[in-house]
């Protein structure tokens, strides 16, 4: 039951964190805090809808915006870098018209221009154009595939268009954008309220009741807590009610269906629950504000609840596990037409906790992150412009083990055509505050009447990109870049981006691997534990069996389903994380070349010269066509072309480096 409630709540929060926190609140007429939060969310989503329509949905939209950002590094950053860093400025002039997006990007340092890029994206033909104006007169014309290769975005594949095989659903970027543009905040909040209300009506009578009062940031709320013992039938009934309520939640369904298959979404929520304790009675505490269910918990240290009180709005989430503790408290207080909000998040993690890893520490993390937003008011609901001032504090531990606190102060002002912000980040350490960076940013609406797709005469292909570069201009640009940054900063940047690992191992140290560090390579403790090996050796499931014959695909769903049936539940998540990191390693990008070698004993490498700078194509294809299936030759040819180019390019660099040495 605890897992079910958590899944239902996670569903709400995943739709929209802010909207999810509003579930189960009292009538907005009581304080107005919820109404003001909803108005802010409406404004944000309205602005998102307008922006997304300009970029994705509506080719009739014409709009533009110019963003300028100025960064002035402070003394702490200068000390950290070991060099005096000057002002950095960036501007992006974006225009959208008739499905065409144009961007002029400029970066400058100490009033000297460093880089100017002109880019155009034609959504109607899935074509992109890019020009480095400092040393190029023509645009490089790119297909989507060529653009991905050009920008080298492979590391971002997990964020865009990925297949989440663990849940059997596929996330598509355009679908996600469409879902945001159709985001009905009030409708979803109403659905969440309805789901929570129906769950509340299905809960059996309480064993005992008591009253609990919580006060945070001058907002006080008294809750009736009901301790309920749930047997198997109770849990089945609540699960059925919750599922039916979500099936009939049209606004939630409309939003999620644009991203995930909704039936699969419900199945993941209700059919994949831990069943270890299904046949046992469970005690759970339910929180009521007035007559409405507004939260749940296991005890006084592990619960979540929210309420709209006479003085404001309050949400509290606390989790207390055996090693990690997390608490989050959000309060909002109306002040006339303005709103004051405060968010405090306290974290305590073990040395191997996820939060610790995210913050870049290796010895655990403990601290309270706080955010205050004062005098917040929406000034234009169509553009999302707002006025406010903000303060934030984040304690961190640096890589050198120093405990510091980052402090942010910022002022926001907006109108119907412009949003501005000015702020500063300071670092507090050993009782002393030092400026890290001061910044200012402006986003202003502009006209988009002059955007157009470059003519063919203004373009070169991706393969001919080198010919578009003016080498004299490139040399001048490189010299100007060095002069603008200054020799000292250039040296620091070179040190930062130069890999010195080889020098570390071979120049600075002369050691014997077997004795200097005392490793006992025969000890089982030396090797890290492998859950996949354990699964194979003790449960007979070999993950290699879930690849197809060409090793181009892996049946993740089948593997996880079979493994979950036999593997200990407490170790299953660790097993899942290991397979998600491991399976890609064995996927083949040259399946036909592999088959040619293993099934037909033809090794492509034997047709290269000794230095791999030439390839005997005629002999290779003469031998291949004697044995390889004709219907697979086109696929093989594509692989061979890429493989030969890659090998020759790699070896040409190797030979050039050797000659220079």
3D architecture notes:
With 661 residues, the protein is α+β, with helices and mostly antiparallel strands. It contains 21 helices and 22 strands. The strands form two sheets. It has a 20-stranded mixed β-sheet. Helix 3 (33-57) packs across helix 6. It is globular. The chain starts with a helix and ends with a helix. 22% of the residues are buried.
How do you describe this structure in short?
This protein has 661 residues and is an alpha+beta fold. Helix content is 37%, strand content 31%.
How large, in whole angstroms, is the Cα Rg? 30 Å
List the total number of helices: 21
Q: Distance N terminus to C terminus?
A: 68 Å
Task: Estimate percent helicity.
Answer: 25-40%
Q: Whole-number average pLDDT?
A: 77
Strand fraction:
25-35%
What features would you highlight for this structure?
661 residues, 20-stranded mixed β-sheet, two-stranded antiparallel sheet, disordered C terminus, 22 strands, 31% strand, alpha+beta
Please describe the topology of this protein.
Layout lengths: L1 H14 L1 H5 L11 H25 L4 E12 L1 H7 L6 E10 L2 E10 L2 E11 L4 E6 L6 E5 H8 L11 E2 L4 E2 L2 H9 L3 H18 L5 E9 L2 E12 L1 H16 L2 H8 L4 H9 L11 E8 L2 E8 L2 E7 L4 E8 L4 E11 L2 E12 L4 H5 L6 E16 L4 E13 L5 E12 L3 E12 L2 E15 L12 E3 L3 H4 L2 H15 L1 H11 L3 H6 L24 H9 L16 H11 L2 H14 L8 H10 L16 H11 L5 H28 L1
Parallel strand pairs: 6-22
Antiparallel strand pairs: 1-2, 1-21, 2-3, 3-4, 4-5, 5-6, 7-8, 9-10, 10-11, 11-12, 12-13, 13-14, 14-15, 15-16, 16-17, 17-18, 18-19, 19-20, 20-21
